Predict the structure of TetR/AcrR family transcriptional regulator.
Amino acid sequence: MAQRGSYAKGVAKREEILTTALEVIAREGFRGASVKELADAVGLSQAGLLHYFDSKEELFAEILRKRDEVDSAAFGDVSDPSEITLADLERGYVQVVRHNADVAGLVQLFARLSVDAAEPQHPAHEYFIERGRTLRRMITGAVAQAQADGSVSDRVDADTIARLFQAVADGLQVQWMLEPDIDMAAAVEALFELVFAKEHDTDAAS
């Protein structure tokens, strides 16, 4: 019983660390949020903080997982591609991109870690692989449905469109970090208009 209670406390502390880290990094930025500052924020030493994670890199990967979990709860759980319409996709996608502009530190963390995680041995490698697959599966499902009902052209297959949307979103984040006056959400809305203009025209006509 004591062991079970200890395990539950460990899980709760880990969740506290991740939730607090999201707030600290969003507020202070990735460069300003050292392991020491994250540890201080939850009342632990640096060694005590890393006791809950295998490495600093794993800690940062888990922070991004937590961010995805929070975003999913805030903007709608889109884990089942069969239930997502193209309108749902656009609405949720634009909301998340707009929200990212308010959490610069987390965008910086995502961009930095995504480069480092290209190495297969990196603790965040599988996170980025799975995240990309999940995102593309979501987009592919909505686009394929729209193509099947004829509201969107099928000249480009849904999988390729999904990769293009992922590439644009990731690339926009890099541009925005260099030029903070860029409106990422507006750019994504424009992309939806360009790619899915036929559906938009159909909606307007109806």
Remarks:
- The chain has two domains: 1-52, 56-205.
- DSSP finds ten helices and no strands in the chain.
